[in-house]
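Dear colleague,

Following up on yesterday's call, I've attached the two folding results inline so they're easy to grep. Please treat them as preliminary; we haven't cross-checked anything against experimental data yet. The first protein's sequence and structure tokens come first.
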Amino acid sequence: MRLDPKVRRTVYAVMAALLVTGVAWIVADALKDSAHGEAWQQVASNLLMCHGGAAMMMLMLLGALVPLHIGRSWRAGRNLTTGTAMATLNATLVVTAFGLYYLGSDATRPWWSGVHIGVGLALPLLVLIHVWSGRRLRDERPRR
């Protein structure tokens, strides 16, 4: 179930923005206690705003993917294993982001953050596997 090229490029661009801003935030956050900590605090704050904006775009795209891609693929029984993993990891990112923003206390923030970062870093690899698997399945399908 190939996505329209414009939709596919948009999904990839937003995912790349999320990965770049997320990884850059991890670095900036780690440098907050350095000699130039105040500057890194501002950088981390700006990166978090960009990351949140990209996350809002991703939520809109995920909503569009449900009928355009996920639902059709599910009904067709295509690429279900990696597709289910993709949906699960994306849902985990949404829930942990909600937890960080709205439920994050000093006691729970490290847990929410650790899960969010781990899943966020794993997702690009899963995207590659999902795309590769889908293309392989498409190429193996008998031609009509």
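Below is the second protein, in the same order (sequence, then structure):
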Amino acid sequence: MKIGSYESSEKNNVGTAVTFFLIGLGAGALAGLLLAPKSGKELRRDLAKNLENAKDTLDDWADEARDRVREAGGAVRDMASRGIDRAADLAEDLRETARENVEPLRRAIKKS
């Protein structure tokens, strides 16, 4: 038996939860439809209706996920741009400071 600490993976929690939710949703819907006293025609119509509703819901979720990814991409680009600008400013400040500190040393070396 291996002894150690358990560390959960934060990345997989959402995917796992959605997967189990969809499995439970499907199993519950199927059980409800199969146990309900309906004719074959009514059952097929209800199945088609529920399938269409599930498809619409998944399409909505996919659209929302795409929108969130686009927003996150824009935010990342903005942050990267600000980081590049800040790095350029810091580099210029460093060059100026180096020039200011090196010039007196050059003069001192030339005099000696």
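For the second protein, one point worth flagging: The chain has one domain: 15-111.

Best wishes,
A.L.
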